[in-house]
Amino acid sequence: MSNNIMEFRHVSQQFGNNVVLRDIDFEIEAGKFYTLLGPSGSGKTTILRLIAGFDQPTSGEIYFDGQQINDVPANRRQVNTVFQDYALFPHMNVAENVAFGLQIKGVKKAETDRRVKEALHLVQLDGYGPREITAMSGGQRQRVAIARAIVNRPKLLLLDEALSALDHKLRVEMQTELRQLQRQLGITFIFVTHDQEEALAMSDQIMIINDGTIQQSGTPVDIYDEPLNHFVADFIGESNIVPGVMKADYLVTIDGQDFECVDAGMRPNERVEVVIRPEDLDITTADQGKLTVTVDTQLFRGVDYQITAHDQRDHEWKINSIHQTTVGAQVGLAFDPEDIHVMRYNESEEDFDARLDSYEEDD
Amino acid sequence: MRQKVIFTVPYALWILLFVIAPLVLIFYQSFFNIDGQVTLGNYATYLTSGVYLKMTLNSVWYAFLITLVTLVISYPTAYVLNHLPNRQFWLLLVILPTWINLLLKTYAFIGLFSRTGTVNQFLQFVGLGSHQLLFTDASFMFVAAYIEIPFMVLPIFNSLAEINPSLINASKDLGASQWQTFTKVVWPLSLPGVKAGIQAVFIPSLSLFMITRLIGGNRVITLGTAIEEHFLTTQNWGMGSTIGVILILAMFIVMFVTGEGRQKGGTALMKKHRFTWGGLYLALVFVILYAPILYLMIFSFSAGKTMEKYHGFSFQHYTDLFADSRMITIVINTLIVALLASLIATIIGTMGALVIKDSRGTWRNSLLSLNNVLMVSPDVIIGASFLIFFTVLGIRLGFVSVLLSHIAFCIPIVVLMVLPKLNELSPTLVDAAYDLGASRWQTLSRVILPAIAPGIFAGYFMALTYSLDDFAVTFFVTGNGFSTLSVEIYSRARQGINLEINALSTLMFIVSLLLVVGYYFISKHSGRRNRIVAVKEGDAQ
């Protein structure tokens, strides 16, 4: 076996007639930062609860360190969780909360004290041990919850929407800190979120979940640059998605106009979807662009302008540009062949990877 | 799984034996005549004799008047209270008298209303002459209303406090006058509280037999008195049960009409107003509420033998009290019953709350309804049905029957105090404990129980005061010379004034006060919200 710490094989979960997970398969490599990303109700929290042991799957097998653990209850798993609402025990102070797991295990007092101190140091809460939970701010409670989990030296740390209760600035700060902490401890992190920016910023690997299945998994860059399907392209970042036809390898037609691209391996004249990210579109004069559009709206967002425009066939285009334009103006849109990403309908992840390998090797 | 079974069994047994069985038994008993033959005769007599129907109508009419008087006094009280700074404290002062034994308060009026009593002395002084006050319907209604006021004030206060102040500002902003704001916004929004108050006052007013007996004289004028008479004097249990069934029906009708009016304590912030007229009114209500209690206490230090004239300071009655070995025995009995009953009830009730918390859907709702049956039933019904139950089982009336009854009526109180704490508990807290390696028992003992501890303490405390205070249930199920304080006070009060009782009531008042302060302390330290507003509804019943 490789160093897979966690493995799901054909796992399905059903509550009554409600199918929450359908035939999920994945492997988690030890020591990496994973993110389960999906909209609410997608099944990502269910996966987390199955890993933690709060629920048992309806069918399929869950392996931890090579051992099947379907029936191992939560309190016997070497997995700890940072809960969305932190779930700090209100009748205990900070140190008592952090010491809880060690006390349950019967760790000696001196060692418990030492490890609690160490854990509080790791989350930058030195000296906060005697504080009551109610005296801590949201961000501090977040750190206590992390300390309470990592003090047990779990092989796997689960974080359920762990940053969603924090304000934007604190959230970004905690993202950096969490990433650092993960590297420092070498523990495998599985982070659940619906926030795609958070997922892109922190993860080694992202799994995109929707409708009880894994839509795509891969590194943040892979997923952003080469989304597998419409859902992923739409969910991760902003995108313009238009229907097209793959005329030949490296040549796609949108509304009868041919564009050079870098995708290949499809049947001739296959109907496809074409993705172009708004930041890859450059505004030029009408005669210099590959497409001519009319500007509808323009919003200033600080870093850039968010512009919407429509072409002659009424496709709407989103453009992020650092240059200002004029509402109502006719402008051209320029982009390179690399900016075009072509998606096939209903392509599986395996097929997608295989196809990519087939023509990338040719290069 | 084992844990679940262990918790379910005692609570389920309680529901079966002390909630369902007594209700079934009282219904069953109503089909037997005094000779033990099955018959519909009781219902026939009830419907045709005229005496019973007239008595029922009378009872309903008096209950209506008492409720009306109570409402008229209580609504303005609640309204003014709600505008005071430190309103929770003032509310506590309104509620405080409910923690003092109902019989002692009633007893105070025997002294106040007697032919040569303080009220008559005052009437003579202002030239109105002396009147027969005791044993009149008016005095019965007055005392009943006096007892019930806090139970009406509390729900109205709570529903007024829940009204968002910006609604009132919005009403004024839209051009409504003070009066229009009241009639069109405040009053409709406080209706749930009014309904809950009516519910809390009307049913007990149908069944308050001890006040009828002590203040109204020996005439049978309420359903409660009739039940007590049939069960304990004429021994016609069949007829008594029939009236009991009628009373249960009346209870359901009232509950149906007033709807689900259960109110919780709320905490909305209000602007601080100064109401001079309101303050005056409130002061008057407080005087009325506390005068009888102070009156009792003052005369406990009188050298005389009656509550008519103060004869100079003396500790004589306290010395008598402490030399009264029968009384001392009864105090100890009462304490033993109360401590044991509330302890056992707290254990079973906490288990029950955990069982209810784990149940879902209709199952959960049925459990909650069954739990509340004893909370809403009038004491006479509980007492009479338990009496039948113990007799059927062949349990001798005395210490055991009293203890079992007290445990039985304390359990739902504990459940109602613990359950909100359990519901407040975030489910992830339990998950977190498992996640950190705790077993089921460790999760229970180290996370769940400590987190709900304030609820358990409050439940124990409430159970304790309910038990210490109970009169009606104990009165029905005691026997063989076993007596508790309330029962003893009742029988002594029926014989007339005895200043030893005054001495006793002073001591009990002080103990109650300490208990209330203790409870206030617990609840203040237990939660984010100060919930001092738990009244003892049992008193009203």
TrEMBL record, chain A:
Instruction: Answer yes or no on keyword Metal-binding.
Output: no
Domain ABC transporter intervals: 6-236
| InterPro entries listed in its UniProt record | AAA+_ATPase, ABC_SmlMolc_Importer, ABC_transporter-like_ATP-bd, ABC_transporter-like_CS, Mo/tungstate-bd_C_term_dom, P-loop_NTPase, PotA-like, Transp-assoc_OB_typ2
Q: Look up the domain of life of the source.
A: Bacteria
One GO cellular component from the entry? ATP-binding cassette (ABC) transporter complex
| MF annotations from Gene Ontology | ABC-type polyamine transporter activity; ATP binding; ATP hydrolysis activity
Q: Which reaction does it catalyse?
A: ATP + H2O + polyamine-[polyamine-binding protein]Side 1 = ADP + phosphate + polyamineSide 2 + [polyamine-binding protein]Side 1
Subunit annotation: The complex is composed of two ATP-binding proteins (PotA), two transmembrane proteins (PotB and PotC) and a solute-binding protein (PotD).
The protein's name is Spermidine/putrescine import ATP-binding protein PotA
Automatic annotation (TrEMBL), chain B:
Segment forming the signal sequence? none
Q: Does the keyword Metal-binding apply?
A: no
Its keywords, alphabetically, are:
Cell membrane, Membrane, Transmembrane, Transmembrane helix, Transport
Source domain of life: Bacteria
Membrane-crossing segments per the record: 12-31, 60-82, 89-113, 133-157, 196-216, 236-258, 279-301, 330-356, 368-393, 399-419, 447-468, 501-522
What are the ABC transmembrane type-1 domain coordinates in residue numbering?
A: 56-258, 331-519
> What InterPro entries would the database entry show?
Bact_Polyamine_Transport (IPR051789), MetI-like (IPR000515), MetI-like_sf (IPR035906)
Q: GO terms for CC? A: plasma membrane
Membrane topology field: Multi-pass membrane protein
Where is this protein found? Cell membrane
Can the keyword Cell membrane be found in this entry's annotation? Answer: yes
Q: Biological process GO annotation list?
A: transmembrane transport
Q: Which family does it belong to?
A: Belongs to the binding-protein-dependent transport system permease family. CysTW subfamily.
UniProt-recorded name of the protein: ABC transporter, permease protein
Q: Which species is listed as the source?
A: Limosilactobacillus pontis DSM 8475
Task: Tell me the organism's taxonomic lineage.
Answer: Bacteria, Bacillati, Bacillota, Bacilli, Lactobacillales
